[in-house]
């Protein structure tokens, strides 16, 4: 059997997973790819670091040039993450006509267009990035291949396992956000610096890639509306439950009249919706196509082996198509932020939890402000206590524009410094 | 833009859907496939039949030779269904180096090996069949491409929309099987002769294809254990609910020590399992891979547009790879029924509902028979009535072999002709 030599850039969590799968499933991978796939070199930063996997030390190098200049290496598998030096390595590898497999969401979101352009210029090189979105779930292939007959109207995903784990723990165990985050760190679901996950950046990169594929429109990742989960409290989750909702961090992309509405934010969704039952560190993506209708993909969105599964799937796909013309290198357009709908014009129902002085006329004052901003109230709960003279009021609104809510909040908080909107959560009925 | 001419065999439900999608989404299909795809001819049996779609009558032919001998037609899209003449048309088209797209599950299950062999012999022809399993859900591509790095251990599916619709209606509206079937016929979810659906044949064909792909082992479809849903009563569904289960028609494929366990039968599954919440005519498939873990695909398993979506996806895929070497033609082995595990040796928990004479010693007699067959009882409900001297007893067993249950039933029904097992349903805890 012919050998196919590949190099791994990075031997962290995902790198170790890829190496394990290639070793453990060597036989079936040979049968399915038609090649004996050999990891010929592995780039690491520190040769002496302890690894999760036993690797022959002769494969390890700290010098990228060793890989770049090895003409026998056909595929470079980039698992370093981040923008640089990953991008530099990929562009140089393409110049040498090496195929690319990457799991790098940040890079594909920020520089995918540039990378595809280079690949097209070189010709006859494949660039695969299934693992960059939702780990082991084959969503990129699904959109790029099976769904190409559809006008895709909407994509909604739970794309970040860390935040979904935290929200699930808060929901099922009644934990506070801080306690659930601590638990997620202890279990390895959250990183030491969890900012990228809990503030929604990770989900934004993934959504940016998905919308580029679904709608053939690309926008800059930092133009996407983003709100993390740090303000979600135990009491929001309990109130959501009372109203028949669960709180999830959703990544939403919609197209209407050529305008894109893209956002990542926590949302209340009906408890009986399939996405509401995606728990723990699982991911799911729901796509609505004009022909296929609603389609959902569900699975593990992170972890060494699930993400490794997607990477190895890509390696095998490149192997099977080694001498074939690449057929999906033109899918990311240049960034075109003009097509982004102003998020202030987006419409949803809203949940507002506020804490106010429990004095005569307060409710009248608030409801007048709602009226002034043309916001119509659907439900209202007031739960006072007799001790501190303050009371929690929860409003659920009818459909209204984001900018009306913002204008209401501004006016409301100007009334007195004792009035505070504790939290605002969008309600997505997903119908 | 270069034209790519295709022919449709059949203009029924799916054929009309395919034609509609190709027409409505012409622009995006051109962009994605790189070709102007033109339906050049359509084979029908009856030229005068009323259609769901407006088609230029000059395209219509009743003579397959018109298509076969048109060298400009590159892709033949078979949407007739059934074994013959579909197989004959496909083999002849392959001889003429035409690519094949088919939605024919029966044919792929029964003759897939033969068709692939012919394609391999001819060389440079693609055979695509995404629409043959689970309509618009891209499950075949998922297994064939993204999951190739995995040893797949298990595939469990709700593969038949008709039966799932019937069971959902019985569950949510408390309908009898007969009433729900009638309703399904009225709404177009069930055919005039519903045998293939309600007796599980349709699900067997689909499962046969899935297991061939998941495990690289092919068995004859008529060797697969099959049980339909006709014996499921309202009272079984209510009792299942009491125990925390829903009843679904499951298609199950597992591999253990090189032996395949494949079956289609109704099963009780825990209400909080993702498959339990697949309602109406939706389909879902859950796959367990050694690397990827649990993965679920969910969507519409039938209908003109969802199935058409998969067919058009295949047409575009062939277009994009027109001059590429086909890379997945060797996946169906010859039938090898030796690897099938005897279904009598399969193990499950069981639900048994029986109707017996309410006389002293009856329960003792039954429980002794259980003991004799080494079946251990998990739960028991007896609900007598005082009028007819008979009583319903429901047993839930611990894990036991199918053949022990069969031996119990035989002995039990031999006791007296007044003793009858009304229904037996396997319980799958899916852990």
* Overall number of domains of chain A: 3
CATH architecture of the largest domain in chain A: 2-Layer Sandwich
Which residues of chain A sit in consecutive blocks of at least 5 with pLDDT less than 50?
Answer: none
* CATH level-4 homologous superfamily of the largest domain in chain A: Dihydrodipicolinate Reductase, domain 2
Quaternary status of these chains? homodimer
CATH topology tier name of the largest domain in chain A: Dihydrodipicolinate Reductase, domain 2
Helical amount among residues of chain A, as a percent range?
25-40%
- Sheet bearing the most strands of chain A, described? 11 strands, mixed
| Global mean pLDDT of chain A | 94
| Extended strand count of chain A | 17
Proportion of strand residues of chain A: 25-35%
CATH class of the largest domain in chain A: Alpha Beta
Termini Cα gap of chain A: 52 Å
Helix count of chain A, per DSSP? 14
Structural class, from secondary structure content of chain A? alpha/beta
The largest inter-chain interface, given as chain pair and residues per side, is: A-B, 58 and 58 residues
Round the Cα radius of gyration of chain A to an integer and report it: 24 Å
Q: Name the shape of chain A in a single word.
A: elongated
